[in-house]
Amino acid sequence: MKSKPELVDELNHLMAEETEAFLRYFQLRYRLRGTDRLAAEGFFDKAMQETLDHATEIAGKIRALGQTPKLEIKLSLGGGPVKLQEALAESLEFEQQALDAYKEFLPHVAGDTMLEDFIRKQIATETEHVQEITMLLE
């Protein structure tokens, strides 16, 4: 298992990824127009809430380790209308990135039951998100 400062750094990175995903979902939701907007509003609202919940949970894990969460985001998002298929494809990209990040982090928390269980839960959740978006794109 990694040292506590290294774990906290990686948890801060995961928290930033979840926060970025929230911002991306937020922006995509409001770039949709017409029937695409009507069809996908619920999906994007749910995704925004889930990513915010994930970031909040990670911040709680950092606090449980006796540290203060540190959020570093460098993000610039384009504007203009987007079609639903494009928005879903972009969503799939950053959900897959989140899944990969959690999978890469898992071996680093081996032996820490609390963190290992949490990361496994996140992997299961992100896997469901990737599968759901993949099915929507079929």
Protein model, in words:
The chain is mostly helical. It has helices spanning 4-31, 34-64, 84-105, 113-137. The radius of gyration is 16 Å and the shape is elongated. The termini are far apart. The mean pLDDT is 95.
N-to-C order of helices and strands: HHHH
- Spans of at least 5 consecutive residues whose pLDDT stays below 50 are none
Sum up the overall morphology in one term: elongated
**Number of separate helices:** 4
Radius of gyration, CA atoms, in whole angstroms: 16 Å
Roughly what fraction of the amino acids lie in strands?
under 5%
- How would a crystallographer describe the biggest sheet? none
Assembly classification: single chain
Rounded to the nearest angstrom, the distance between the terminal CA atoms is 40 Å
Helix-residue proportion: over 70%
Structural class: mainly alpha
Report the strand count. Answer: 0
Mean pLDDT figure: 95
Compact summary:
With 138 residues, the protein is mainly alpha-helical.
Topology:
Blueprint: H1 4-31, H2 34-64, H3 84-105, H4 113-137
Helix pairs in contact: 1-2, 1-3, 3-4
Tag the structure with descriptive keywords:
138 residues, mainly alpha, elongated
